[in-house]
Amino acid sequence: MSYQTEILIPITFFITTFAAIFGLRYMVNKERMAMIEKGIDISFSKSQPQPYKNLKWGLLLIGLGLGLFIAYLLDFTVFNSSNEDMNKKVVFIYFSLMAIFGGLGLFISYLIEKKETLK
């Protein structure tokens, strides 16, 4: 890689990120100003409280961590991925177990929320 691309890539990344954030913020403010001018109540667009947000994130991250840990254990005990060809196949186990346990965490969060709202 040349010296110019080593400099241009980070600069382009930061400029693009700044432009995207600025553009989104500008469009949201413009939309709100148009709604105020038309007399539309903008209070409905305010975010509603989400009491189970932390529970959902916590169970999702616990599930992802558990899936990653089990994939690691399977990789080095059952599969013993020492050769390069087997190592490529084991990568799918990491992603699949993370998805399965992350989804399981979200499902448990759903069951807990459903149980609490029925009370």
UniProtKB/TrEMBL annotation:
A Pfam family assignment: DUF6249
InterPro entries found in the cross-reference section: DUF6249
Transmembrane segments: 7-28, 57-79, 91-112
Keywords for this protein: Membrane, Transmembrane, Transmembrane helix
Organism superkingdom: Bacteria
Limits of the DUF6249 domain: 12-114
Protein name: DUF6249 domain-containing protein
Species the sequence originates in: Pedobacter alpinus
